[in-house]
Amino acid sequence: MTVLVAAQQTETPDALPSRQARLAYRDGRVASTAGIAPGFVQGNLAILPEKYASAFHRFCQLNPKPCPIIGMSDVGSPHIPALGADLDIRTDVPRYRVWRDGEVVDEPTDVSKHWRDDLVTFVLGCSFSFEEALLDEGMPIRHIEHDVRVPMYRTNIACSPSGPFAGPMVVSMRPFKSADAIRAVQITSRYPAVHGAPVHLGHPHLIGIKDISKPDYGDPVPVADDEIPVFWACGVTPQSVINAAKLPFAITHSPGLMLVTDLKNKNMAVI
Prior knowledge:
Blueprint: H1 17-26, E1 40-49, H2 50-62, E2 69-72, E3 96-100, E4 103-106, E5 119-125, H3 128-136, H4 142-145, E6 152-158, E7 168-177, H5 178-188, E8 200-201, E9 227-233, H6 237-245, E10 250-253, E11 259-264
Antiparallel strand pairs: 1-5, 1-10, 1-11, 2-5, 3-4, 3-10, 6-7, 7-9, 8-9
């Protein structure tokens, strides 16, 4: 089995930590991708039949905070060369979700047997990219400290609809002390292609979260008495709308287990 590495980037594409991560997942390794291949962009997946692709593309345009597109495939192609020369979308994610009629029916580590010639892959920006900038500022990321998946929650924030795609925004949460929360807003505002600034700070109930200790996706993390929860739009949002739309067929990633690309996080910053 290929071993995940955190080696320094070299001139050789084969030695890129991002490619080594993909090879490990291709070999069947299953683990959270938080903190994997530092410096490289990770992405959320939404793989849909071509008949729904136009409406979903419009949905992403109408909802750029949760659904910033960083890559798309040609119809039927499992490859997106702009995101990785040898990337195979069917095998290179730690775990997938296969959906039928809006329900998860399988969670394999390889979707080759589910692949169809009419599928279009959308890769959406992931907040793991701006976490690097937060860490560089010495700000703690709780789920990385605890080696768990980031907690994610369905909210009462409605997305703008497009065709069959409509439903609530999903958010990811990271707790910070008040001063650090302000700094987190400043830092993440520079990364609109990977969700940008938070959509909400504090008071989870105001966005429909009844119990912060029970995320809808990912794992719970502790929030100290002197901290406030900070919520960012999340690329798992398409999974909530696929469920709401009862879409006949779709494939996504399992929340927190992302596609590791060869794009660089530093190139996602606008200033």
